[in-house]
Amino acid sequence: RAPVTVTSLLEKKHHGEKIVMVTAYDYPSATVVEAAGVDMVLVGDSAATTVLGLDSTVPATVDELLMLNRAVRRGLRASFMVSDLPFGSYEASDYEAVKSAQRFVKEAGAQAVKLEGGGVMVDRARAIVAAGIPVVGHLGLTPQTATALGGLRAQGKSAEQATKMVADALALQDAGCCALVLEAIPAAVAEELMPLLEIPVIGIGAGASTDGQVLVWHDLLGLLEGRTAKFVKQYAHLHQAMVAAVHQFAGEVRDGEFPGREHTYAIPPEELQRFQG
Ligand code: KIV
Ligand code: NA
Hints:
By secondary structure, this protein is α/β, with parallel strands linked by helices. It has two domains: 6-236, Phosphoenolpyruvate-binding domains (TIM Barrel, Alpha-Beta Barrel), CATH 3.20.20.60; 241-276, no CATH class. It has twelve helices and eight strands. It has helices at 6-14, 27-35, 47-50, 62-75, 94-108, 121-130, 146-149, 159-174, 187-193, 217-221, 238-255, 269-276, and strands at residues 19-23, 40-43, 80-84, 112-114, 135-140, 179-183, 201-204, 212-215. It has an eight-stranded parallel β-barrel with strand order 1-2-3-4-5-6-7-8, surrounded by six helices. Helix 5 crosses helix 6. It is elongated, with a radius of gyration of 22 Å. Bound molecules: 3-methyl-2-oxobutanoic acid (KIV) and sodium ion (NA). The site of 3-methyl-2-oxobutanoic acid has 11 residues, from strand 6.
């Protein structure tokens, strides 16, 4: 498989081929998405909730995410790696935005960074692009600022919100973003947006009209128990499968069934005799 690039993603869009994006947070998940031929891998700040067990993405730090990013990088070959910039690492100034983005490129091999929001964040995106780093925008439900949005809920459900989203999307495109993620917005709003955008648009809870779709690793595989968002489809139920496997191990240990002879090392008989004296 040829390495995915900004150019090949644009070609996919032009040919009407859907773009597949999945999050990954460590070496094994990276090797799986790579083997499955996923186009884009997002090392999401969703790691804060899915990997670290926090209840929002807000506390995620650059250093925490960098460690996960480096592990993902080691598992990828052809997939295009996008790294989320965490809350607090890019908003305050163009300088901070560029400095943070550079860390993900230099220290973890990111091929693009993603940041959330429109408005002044468009300037941050432009500054990072000017520094030579591809940027992916993210509009709609932006979990880093969910408190300001009134919680984790669908966005763009009023005419005013939808109009603002169109303006932000066009501004991010003008700023040079190489792609845009739209999260949790009405399908009809995404459909209005699509003809206006020349860059690849990846949806999550934005309906079927976008150029591609992204899901979170843990959601797609059913790795965590509990409620999932409306936009999630679970393609496996690995939490149950893993509990069953560990449960079976525990049972075999307790019954003395494990380890068997095949899991056990031998010593040459003469060595054993000398040892036992
Ligand atoms: O962090 C994340 O997983 C994301 C996707 C949901 C787009 O930003
Ligand atoms: Na994110």
